[in-house]
Design a protein that fits this description.
By secondary structure, this protein is mainly alpha-helical. The protein has one domain. Helix 1 packs antiparallel against helix 2 and helix 2 packs antiparallel against helix 3. The model has no long low-confidence stretch (mean pLDDT about 85).
């Protein structure tokens, strides 16, 4: 299967952008002070970075069954990631005794 240079360049830009976002996310996770801030950086980087990488792979494959599988992976990840992030944030709020010093937490 031969890929046209235009599709290759578009796919390369999308994949490299996704990798760059994931690298920035990694620095955010290690540089931010509070657990909720680190979790937010990780969740946003994962969602956007993985989306860009999968879109780049879909451009490479074109309209095919493999692209449909990649789209399915992206949709499943987008449903699972916010749920996991919410559960981790709830766990941090319920177990961290100094959470009010770090951030504003609304009463339930």
């Amino acid at each position: 299967m031969s890929i046209s240079p235009v599709r290759f360049i578009i796919a390369a830009i999308l994949i490299m952008t996704g990798i760059l976002i994931m690298v920035i996310q990694t620095f955010g996770v290690f540089r931010l002070k509070y657990a909720l801030n680190r979790m937010h950086a990780a969740a946003m980087g994962d969602s956007l970075g993985i989306m860009m990488i999968i879109l780049g792979m879909m451009v490479i494959y074109g309209f095919s069954f493999a692209s449909l599988k990649l789209l399915t992976v992206l949709i499943v990840f987008w449903f699972a990631s916010p749920v996991c992030s919410h559960l981790l944030a709830k766990l941090e709020v319920s177990t961290n005794e100094q959470i009010e010093e770090e951030c504003e937490v609304p009463e339930e």
